[in-house]
Amino acid sequence: MDKFIAVIDYGLGNLRSVSKALESVGAKVKVADKAKDILSAEAIVLPGVGAFRKGMENLGKSEIIPALLESIKNNKPFLGICLGLQLLFTESEEHGICKGLDIIKGNVKKFSANVKIPHMGWNDIRKQKTENREQKTDILKDIPDNSYFYFDHSYYVEPEDKDTVIATTEYGKEFVSAINKDNVWGVQFHPEKSSDLGLKILKNFIELTRTK
Amino acid sequence: MKIESKFLTGLAKRIIPCLDVKDGRVVKGINFINLKDAGDPVETASAYSKEGADEVVFLDIAASFEKRGTMLDVVKKTAEKVFIPLTVGGGIRNIEDIRLLLKSGADKVSINTAALENPALIKESAEEFGSQCIVVAIDAKLQKTEDKNSKNLSSVVRPLSSDKKWEVYTYGGRKPTGLDAVRWARRVEELGAGEILLTSMDKDGTKDGYDLQLTQAISEAVNIPVIASGGAGTLEHLYEALTTGKADAVLAASIFHYGEYSIKEAKEYLKNKGIAVRI
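Output (structure tokens, whole complex):
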């Protein structure tokens, strides 16, 4: 069977944009909401726009969560985008405390009112290096420091383990805009909406998948 | 001197070209670049993206019931080729219209008349799809004090420090609503809108600059991003809207469509004047 990337359909993603962007850089994509498709994919992308609680509700209604957890346990490459990144965390303070997938320890918090909310538009990322642990930063390969990406969100992630942070962005405060833990990557911005550099990140992800 | 934390951000100001689309074709001539088909919205949006546009807006100016499918098709084809945010407005009546557009590949939808006639639509759609994709378009016109409507208006507005008031219009600027624009802007934010697309009806089509007082009044009244629209004729006008007007983004049509300036020129001009832009 041909290798493909599963783009998870849980009713909240801009699935079409994400799929088309992945295809434009050479991936074969299957929009998936069934465990068997998720488990047989070579990599998984969890897109997402919208509210955290609704995201967890929708994921929980389907057979997606156990398949995701198993895939991640088996080191299958995984990329979370925007809400898809936030859902990986322990809990969110969006509309009262709401539990997440708890794959990355930490919280999802709202920007404070000293900045306009949502954080909408193009902002730059600063790549972060840590001495403490081997990180897989190849997803940012050939992305110059301070490159602009498109953001559209009101909440941001705060991982407990700072070694997971591979990029940060300034918006009223410095917040985490990209993470990595083992074979799990997450970006707060939308690579599928960030023109050539965004597509480059998706291409890097596909290459990571193939060299695994 | 106190530094406002609002400015401690790397967030770039956005330049957004707007295309009027009728029955699947771009109306108003476009001659800014060597396009095979300047009437094709997909090709035009793609060219703008390559030039460095931060987003593209499609305004469906026909938007009659039987023609809606045409726009969905255009949106689908655009989402296959253009990898920057796409906002679609014009003729959106209900939550199903919004769902179909987002599903077809629009990143945001812009609601105008329907939002005024049914403010609950803003709340429902923000809860369903997230505030980040719900743009409320406000068409505003300066309310002259001697205007016979001003008596009606004063009962619903708080006076502005500038003593100027702007009234909201619907149906493409044909129908006055009696609502004060600043008050309406605050209300749409409360209801869950993620952004305001603000058009000055007095300035639209004049090319003598955005309505800076209106833009500033709305930008200061809300804590969501404001896109200024109507009146752009020079690059200086873009600069004024982003500084004096305090807008987060500027929307323009004819200065880009007719090739007077490229998006790239606009961004370089703004950058040289110290504005954060994505180049």
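The CA atoms of residues 42 and 78 of chain B lie 5 Å apart.
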